[in-house]
Amino acid sequence: MQIMDRAQEFLSKYITLNGEEFMTVVRALEIREFGKKQFVTKPGEVEQYLNFVAQGLARKFFYKNKEEMVTHIAKENEIICCFESFTTLTPSAYVVETIEPTSFISISRQNLEDIYLAVPKMERLARMVITEQFILNEHWEYDRVRFGSRERFIQFVKENSNLLQRVPQKYLASYLNIKPETFSRLKHLLKRS
After folding, report:
1. Tens digit of pLDDT for each residue in 24-35?
2. Which residues contact 182 (CB under 8 A, 6 or more apart)?
3. Which long-range contacts (CB under 8 A, 24 or more apart) does 110-115 make?
4. What does the H/E/C string look like for 36-91?
5. 127-180 pLDDT, tens per residue?
6. Exposed, middle or buried: residue 74 (CB in 10 Å: 0-12, 13-18, 19+)?
7. Which is deepest, 8, 12, 37, 192, by most CB within 10 Å?
8. Looking at the domain assignment, is residue 94 inside a domain?
9. Cα dihedral angle (72, 78, 80, 83), rounded to 10 degrees?
10. How many CB atoms are closer than 10 A to CB 125?
11. What is the span of the domain harbouring residue 92?
12. Which of 38-42, 128-132, 181-185 has the highest mean pLDDT?
């Protein structure tokens, strides 16, 4: 699937754009390519882009002392960004880094504001995407508290089994808030059953 086809597919889940509106949006987008393990946003930088993952994987994390705390793993057709920094133009406490070679469809903050004026339907899309992200985050936070490590692991594998092959185990363990040795034991038990 072509990269802009992915963008159109994503947009059409939320709103219907005519040809002219879609072309206005496309002109505001940038295709950005990153190799494996490249920083997209570093801590202390102001997030410049809202990123849609067209191909590849990226993670968002922060440092707690020297330990990396993974808070988001974004695969194809998902959005990744240091949202607070992007919105408030303040330095980010988070890092966005690719896990494998990744192609983003990105939009700068200024281009996003211009699009809201040129194509008012895009504000509706933004509200819908923000609401969806909020619900996903709330659901994830709830599951992290109510489930033990084994249940979180099983739930994650049910919903994201392909990521077990694509994402280093230490990142998944951090994301699931599980000790790496516990994650390894659970993965081993999964293989045996």
Report:
1. 999 999 999 999
2. 149, 173
3. 111/28, 111/29, 112/28, 112/50, 114/28, 115/24, 115/25, 115/28
4. CCCEEECCCCECCEEEEEEECCEEEEEEECCEEEEEEEECCCCEECCHHHHHHCCE
5. 999 899 889 889 888 888 888 888 988 888 888 888 988 999 999 999 998 998
6. buried
7. 8
8. yes
9. -100
10. 19
11. 3-118
12. 38-42
Distance CA 50, CA 105 (A): 8
Report d(CA 105, CA 79) in Å as an integer: 9
Question: Does pTM surpass 0.85?
Answer: yes
The secondary structure element, H or E, covering residue 35 is none
| pLDDT tens per residue, range 58-100 | 999 999 999 999 999 999 999 999 999 999 999 999 999 999 9
Task: Name the residue with tokens 């330095």.
Answer: 91
Give the DSSP H or E segment for 139.
Answer: helix 121-146
For residue 175, which amino acid is it?
A: Y
* Residue 102 β-bridge partners: 34
List the CATH number of the domain containing 66.
2.60.120.10
149 in a domain, yes or no? no
40 belongs to a structural domain: yes
Q: How many domains does the chain have?
A: 1
CA distance 29 to 48: 13
Q: Has residue 150 been placed in a domain?
A: no
